Amino acid sequence: MKENNKRAQIYKLEFCSLDNAVIHNIPSSRFIKVSADWFDIPISTAEFTEVPSADNMIEQELKGIITDTSAINRKELEEVLADYGILRCTYTNGVQRIIGTDQFPVEVELSENGSPARYELTVNHKSASKAKIYQSF
After folding, report:
1. What is the SS3 assignment for the chain?
2. Which pLDDT value is given to residue 1?
3. What confidence score (pLDDT) does residue 95 get?
4. Which residue has the higher pLDDT, 69 or 3?
C-alpha cells in the first residue's frame, strides 16, 4: 500500500463532528489517531487537493458529488454536516487520510446544482499540516 499513489482515488468519505470524536494529534506527526462515530457521506465522486500557501499554511480543498437528492438524504446531510468536524477519506489504494483536526476542524458546505439535480459538497480549509494518515485506537 503506497501512501502517495497519485492514481488512487477517494471512494469513501465519512464525517464526524468534534463532539463525537476523541482525537490524539501530535502536530509534527504525519499520523493522527481518532476514535469516532463516523457518518458515511454517499458520494459518487470526490477530489482532494493540498497546496502550500504564502503564510506557511496548507490550503486544502475537497469537492464531492452526491447523486441521491432525496428529501430524506438532504435533511440527514444538513443535520450531520451542520457542525465543525473532521473528514475521513478512504482511497482505492487502502490509505485513509483525515482532513481537519481538533485545532483546525473543517466546515462542510452543501449545495444543490445541475440537471439532473445533484448535491455538491465543498470544503475549503487552511491547516498547519497536510491531511494526516488515519489510525484508530
Report:
1. CCCCCCCCCEEEEEEEEHHHEEEEECCCCCEEEEEECCEEECCCEEEEEEEECCCCCEEEEEEEEECCCCHHHHHHHHHHCCCCEEEEEEECCCCEEEECCCCCCECCEEEEECCCCEEEEEEEEEECCCCEEEECC
2. 45
3. 96
4. 69
Q: Scanning the structure block, which residue is given the C-alpha cell 488512487?
A: 8
- Alpha-carbon separation of residue 55 from 4, 24, 39 (angstroms): 24, 25, 33
Structural contact between residues 104 and 20, judged by C-beta atoms closer than 8 angstroms: no
According to the model, what pLDDT value does residue 5 have? 61
The candidate with the shortest Cα–Cα distance to 66, out of 55, 52, 51, 77, is 77
Query: How far is CA 14 from each of CA 40, 46, 114, rounded to the nearest angstrom?
Result: 5, 12, 23
CA 50-78-106 angle, 5° bins: 25
pTM over 0.90: yes
Instruction: Tell me the pairing of strands 31-36 and 132-135.
Output: parallel
